[in-house]
Amino acid sequence: MTKFAAGRRPLPTSPFKPRVKAPPKHFAVGDRVTHDAFGLGRVIDTEGDTDAAVLVDFGSRQERITHPYTAMFKL
Predict the structure, then answer these.
(1) What are phi and psi of 63, to 5 degrees?
(2) Which of 1, 58, 68, 71 is deepest in the core (most CB within 10 A)?
């Protein structure tokens, strides 16, 4: 069985560019955010120095969103 690792090196002669990692998302208390499932909200707390998780108030409920924040974007 062959596994295709995400860390594969591209050939120097390849016409395809290697994938570029997206910069990490950082949120601060008071930031307005939007989430694909919960809608609009405001960050009310952050956990850890590396933004391991954020607590967001979406109006009707508060949710703890963990890293990576693929469905959440800063407004």
Answers:
(1) -125, 145
(2) 58
Place of tokens 């290697």: 18
- Domain residue extents for the chain: 32-74
pTM of the predicted model, to two decimals? 0.70
Instruction: Kindly report the backbone phi and psi dihedral angles of residue 65, in degrees, each rounded to the nearest multiple of 5, phi listed first.
Output: -105, 125
| Burial status of residue 56 (CB atoms within 10 A of its CB: 0-12, 13-18, 19 or more) | buried
CA–CA separation, 24 and 14 (whole Å): 27
Q: How many Cβ atoms are within 10 Å of 69's Cβ, its own excluded?
A: 19
Closest CA to 58 of 70, 44, 47, 73: 44
What backbone torsions phi and psi does residue 47 show, to the nearest 5 degrees? -115, 125
